[in-house]
Design a protein that fits this description.
about 50% helix, mainly alpha, single chain, 8 helices, three-stranded antiparallel β-sheet
Length: about 190
């Protein structure tokens, strides 16, 4: 039997969960489970991903959710935070867009993600959107929270989840981030 434990997963917690699962499903045929260690086609996803996606949609303009587009980008990486866009029509479809304007709508969502700071886009042989770099979403959300764009309840839920899972990315000095945002906003006001 293949071990379900990974190096990063605390063995005691994993053993406890396995004991509970086995007590609830004592006759479980493990071949019916979809297991990362037994099949290909998997990638790393942060445990706080559902909250990250929800906050992405909260930050996006009303009626223009970006979470499906972001999820598809994430699923195209190999833990390198880099996507080469060679099939934009396919990517549009995977992100939930179909019909004549699918590719245009997808490109609009990519632009929103770029404007929000979650990705960086570079042009190439396939057009304006050829290369995409996915930036650390925790750091981007910290900046949006410091600027007052993320509601406290959503940010606090993400903070709580980050603590639960041991994600330290969100623990950036929020006061420093707030001061940096205020300084930038102040310099824009003085110039204008």
């Amino acid at each position: 039997m293949t071990s379900i434990f990974t190096k990063k997963q605390p063995k005691k917690i994993a053993q406890q969960k396995l004991a509970i699962r086995n007590s609830i499903w004592p006759d479980l045929d493990e071949n019916k489970l979809w297991r990362r260690l037994k099949s290909d086609g998997w990638l790393s996803v942060p445990r706080a991903f559902p909250l990250l996606l929800r906050i992405l949609d909260m930050l996006a303009p009303k009626g223009k959710p970006v979470s499906q587009t972001y999820l598809d980008l994430w699923c195209r990486t190999y833990d390198d935070s880099f996507v080469i866009v060679s099939k934009p029509r396919e990517m549009a479809y995977y992100a939930g867009f179909s019909g004549e304007r699918a590719q245009h709508t997808w490109a609009n969502r990519i632009q929103i993600l770029e404007e929000l700071g979650f990705i960086d886009v570079k042009s190439g042989v396939h057009g304006r959107i050829n290369y995409i770099l996915i930036l650390n979403p925790y750091q981007v959300i910290n900046k949006h929270y410091a600027a007052g764009h993320v509601k406290a309840d959503a940010y606090n839920a993400l903070r709580e989840r980050a603590i639960e899972i041991g994600a330290m990315d969100l623990n950036a000095d929020i006061e420093e981030t707030k001061n940096s945002v205020k300084a930038k906003m102040g310099s824009k006001v003085k110039k204008g």
